[in-house]
Design goal:
219 residues; alpha/beta; TIM Barrel; 8 strands; globular; binds pyridoxal-5'-phosphate
Length: 219
């Protein structure tokens, strides 16, 4: 009933997702395209971690929400070189480190700013011209250098499945991502979105990034 549910069913959707997630999987509520009021409602339901992909939009909402207990902000979009400094100041976790150059720049600026951001390296397990990221081979080749990013900390891998994969193919990609993270002794695997989070969670995702299935369509 719309009148009885001022949040448009957010509480019910949050409860359903929470009950379906295994203990190793946390929910990153992807709030890009949603207003600060929606984030406030989710925060009132004890959701603390939010994902944004556009800096200016995120900063405006963070300012509106400054009265709340500090939230856990994750930057999930493509990070442009000239945005690294302001992104590091506003986000504790970056999900889409997609090149060695970017990783080294993040590490340098984190050092200058006295910050210790948590980084996830974006990996492309299938050819996908629409997306950036390391191939597994590139990641292995750069791995020694990627372990020298202090004070930034590489905590895991992140992947986005290409559009149009079958459920079975997506599950295979998620399994490969988990296996590579394990081989590198990385705890976090950021994988799974509104359409495929259940399969990702089963495969060992530690962060499912869910936007529209939680908040509804974006504005
Ligand atoms: C927008 C976005 C999501 C969430 O997408 P939904 O399909 O709405 O769940 C997850 N991950 C990334 C990287 C995104 O840009």
């Amino acid at each position: 009933m719309a009148a009885a549910e001022p949040n448009g069913g957010l509480a019910a959707r949050l409860a359903e997702i929470r009950s379906a997630l295994p203990p190793h999987t946390r929910l990153l509520a992807v709030s890009k395209g949603q207003n600060a009021a929606a984030i406030r409602q989710a925060a009132a339901l004890a959701q603390r971690s939010f994902g944004e992909s556009r800096l200016q939009e995120a900063l405006a909402k963070q300012a509106e929400l400054a009265d709340l207990e500090p939230l856990d902000w994750h930057f999930i979009g493509r990070l442009q070189a000239n945005k690294v400094r302001p992104v590091l100041k506003a986000f504790g976790t970056i999900h889409a480190i997609d090149s060695l150059d970017l990783a080294l720049r993040v590490a340098r600026i984190a050092g200058e700013e006295g910050l210790a951001p948590r980084l996830l390296l974006q990996v492309k397990f299938r050819p996908d011209p629409a997306k950036g990221g390391f191939t597994p081979e590139e990641l292995q080749a750069h791995w020694a250098q990627l372990q020298t990013l202090a004070p930034a900390v590489v905590v895991g891998l992140m992947t986005i499945t290409p559009l149009g994969l079958s459920a079975q193919e997506s599950a295979a990609v998620f399994g490969e991502c988990r296996a590579l993270a394990d081989a590198l002794a990385l705890e976090e695997c950021s994988m799974g979105m509104s359409g495929d989070w259940r399969a990702a969670a089963s495969a060992g995702s530690t962060w499912v990034r869910i936007g529209s299935a939680l908040f509804g369509s974006r504005h």
